[in-house]
Specification:
- The protein is an alpha+beta fold.
- It has one domain: Winged helix-like DNA-binding domain superfamily/Winged helix DNA-binding domain (Arc Repressor Mutant, subunit A, Orthogonal Bundle).
- The chain is 53% helix and 18% strand.
- It is built from four helices and three strands, in the order H-E-H-H-E-E-H.
- Strands 1-3-2 form a three-stranded antiparallel β-sheet.
- Strand 2 and strand 3 form a beta hairpin.
Length: 98
């Protein structure tokens, strides 16, 4: 059972990134400002964690203009969705299997 702990994804297994992954898993696409407000964090902190997720291939960044203003949004990649589901599966094993 305890060997499952080493299976926890180190990228996701951080409070802020886990919260981001959860939001992104339940919403197709989320803006930077939405994440900032929902997670009650600073722009710098959010940007740092988003870069880690992007570098891992877990999120895709979309940049576009909305009413002539730049907007950045994020969505999970297929790899990110699989990693999140795998992470939850390991947690369930840790919590419910004796």
């Amino acid at each position: 059972m305890y060997e499952d702990i080493v299976e926890l994804d180190k990228v996701i297994h951080e409070r802020m990134r886990l919260a981001m992954m959860t939001l992104l898993y339940h919403h197709k696409e989320v803006s930077f400002n939405y994440l900032k407000k929902a997670l009650k964090t600073s722009e710098g902190n959010l940007a740092t964690h988003l870069k880690v997720l992007e570098k891992s291939g877990y999120i895709k960044v979309k940049k576009r203009f909305v009413k002539r203003r730049p907007q950045t949004s994020y969505e999970l990649t297929e790899l990110g969705k699989e990693a999140y589901r795998r992470y939850l599966s390991v947690l369930k094993r840790l919590l419910y299997e004796n």
